[in-house]
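Attaching the record inline, Q. Sequence:
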Amino acid sequence: MVEHQSRPGWAEVEEYLSATLVHGDAGMDAVLASIDAAAMPRIEVAPTAGKLLMLLARIQGARRVLEIGTLAGFSTIWLARALPDGGHITTCEYLPEHAAVAGRNIMAAGFAAMVDIRVGPALDTLPTLLGGEPYDFVFIDADKGNNVNYLRWALKLTRPGSVIVMDNVIWEGTILNPGDDPDAAAIRAALDFMGANPALDATAIQTAGSKGWDGFAIAVVR
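Structure, as predicted:
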């Protein structure tokens, strides 16, 4: 597995951008504290990325959001802040203990009525969502080995005009030469899938910050 390393300048710029543009609050600080208190991995999105998700969902006019990978609910809460009254988020979390932390955080943020946390393997949950109203926005941030499967399901559960965002697509640049890193190989396969699929119009952005050298892909369903 690749080791993500940040440089001092990257983190300092991110802190400046967060303080200047994101304007963190006690609620989000409490979510981060809950991650540490539960000894969970610090793999939540950066505050700048969380607010970007909120703005993208708001720009898209999303009412229904699907999130694959909940962790402690940090990105879930950012996405919930984008939704209008009556909006809904379905978020999939593999580990019950993480889902429990997320549930408490989402309730404290005032979004419990808006968010449905599904516990268990996402590939078991996603088929149960077929036949419902399509999702307007999908955020994929879970086990990298299933990224292509998650993208396939995202296409089944969305509509033309829906937005799909996939996190961690640069992986310290290892996508150029995955070698024996299965995550890097899976990420590259997912990018290849996005670029070759006629149902998607996609691009990717590289980022450098507290999470190291990484980035995200964004696609619109045609």
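DSSP finds eight helices and seven strands in the chain. Residues 8-22 form the longest helix (15 residues).

More tomorrow.
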